[in-house]
Amino acid sequence: MIKLKDLITEIIPGDAFKDGNSIEIAVEKLYYPNKWKTVSFDLRSMRANEVGTNHMVNTQKEIKLTSSIKSKIKKIAKNPEDAHFINQDDSNMVKKLLRAIK
Fold it and tell me: Residue 66 in contact with residue 23, Cβ under 8 Å?
């Protein structure tokens, strides 16, 4: 039986989480329980910090993405250097990220 608490706190692709000074975005759920492919951005320096998997997404503080944050993330993802960095493991990660933050 699914509990109401689990339905309310369910994570979907495109959810953003505060991780220190950066914003981490859940892009794709993996087959492992509570494990997500994530991309972390530092909006002050306009760079992609980290790309990888995260199983601690449920414990981080969720934030709402504003339109200005979304446009900054799109600008970073379309930069050729950052796009190459994001696409290191998965060649379609930028496309998945842009689809998730719509």
Answer: no
CA atoms of 3 and 25, how far apart (whole Å): 25
Q: Locate 47 and state its tokens.
A: 């760079």
Closest Cα partner for 55 from 79, 77, 30, 21?
30
Angle (CA) 7-12-14 rounded to 5° is: 150
pTM to 2 decimal places: 0.81
Do 63 and 18 meet the contact criterion of CB atoms below 8 Å apart? yes
Are the C-beta atoms of 40 and 27 separated by less than 8 Å?
A: no
Sign of the Cα pseudo-torsion (6, 11, 54, 17, in order): negative
pLDDT (tens digit per residue) in 5-54: 655 667 888 889 887 888 999 998 888 777 889 999 998 889 999 898 88
- Residue 82's contacts (CB-CB under 8 Å, 6 or more residues apart) are 47, 48, 76
